Each structure stands twice: as structure tokens, then as C-alpha cells.
Amino acid sequence: MFFDDERSNRLRPEILTQLVGQYLNDAERARYLGLPDTTRIRERAKIINPERLILGEHCWIGEDAVLDASGGLTIGEHTSVGVGTLVFTHSSWLANMMLENHSGSDLIERTPVVIGKGCFLGGHAVIMPGVTIGDFATVQPNSVVAKDVPDRCLVAGNPARVFQRYDEDYVESEAERVRAKNARLP
């Protein structure tokens, strides 16, 4: 029933980790995966090559997010990765074109991704290999980020482009607005 080859034996612990993770709450799942204690990781989120992931404190990873850390992935503190978001650090396009798309192909290209601190990646965003997203950036839902994103800006679209830049005064005024609104809630 089970294959007894190198690849199967390497993948089986990852499969078991995913299975066990379904029965844990967000904090338990984070601890089980060796993530910082302040991390909240929702069910069905997947980390490929977790040993290549550097994750800051107070991060949130949504349901069905896939974090491919095979090429190296760094995510800064207080960053949220939305539901169904895909972060890629590898590409097999050349292996496909050369008819060499097999496990261990030397045509699979791996390139690190860096996501800054205080970022918000909206649901179903796609982050391509080699991208750096600056600190305090917002990626709108369903955006495809194929090039670097500067600090303190909002990007959206496919391909994502800058729509707004945030200065500290703007962020402070928005924080005051939201706190005042929340204070009025029952």
C-alpha cells in the first residue's frame, strides 16, 4: 500500500504533520510546527520546507494559505497572510518546458521571498518567487505580486501595482478613527 522509496519516506512526516494539525487549535498548531508562540496558524495552512521559514512574532496565517519556503522565506513580525494566499519561492516552468519536471530536477529554480513587518496580505493573493515586500505594506485580495513592493504602500491587481502610499500621519489618523468607532460598539 505504501511506497518505500526516498521521496515517499521524506514526504510522509509532512503528511502526518498536516493530519495531526487538523485536530489542534491555532496556538497548538503553531507550537507543533515549531513556530513562535505568538503565531496563529489556521487549519489547512501548509508550509513547504518549514526549516527554511523565518517567521516573526505575532503573525497570523489564514486557512488554506500555502507558504513555500523551499527557496527561503522570511516574514516579519505582526504580519498577516490572508486566507488562501500563495507564496511561491520556487518555479518549475523550465523543468516543464524541458520535459524534466521530476522530483529533484536541477531545472527547478528557487529564489527567496522577503515579506516585511506589519504587512497585510489579503486573501487569495499570490506572491511570486524573488519578491521583497517592504515593511507596513498592504496587498489587496486576489492580487498577483510579481515585483518588489516598497514600504508603506498599498498594492492591488494582476500584476499588482502601487495605488496608495501611507505616511505615519495617515496611519495614526486611521488608528484613531477605528478605535473611536470600536469604542462606540456595544
UniProtKB/TrEMBL annotation:
Q: What is this protein called?
A: Acyltransferase
**Cross-referenced CDD domains:** LbH_MAT_like
- Write down the InterPro entries for this protein, in alphabetical order: Hexapep, Hexapeptide_acetyltransf, Trimer_LpxA-like_sf
Its Gene Ontology molecular function terms?
A: O-acyltransferase activity
Q: Write down the Gene3D superfamilies for this protein, in alphabetical order.
A: Hexapeptide repeat proteins
Which family is it part of?
Belongs to the transferase hexapeptide repeat family.
Task: Show the GO cellular component annotation of the record.
Answer: cytosol
The answer to whether UniProt assigns keyword Acyltransferase to this entry is yes
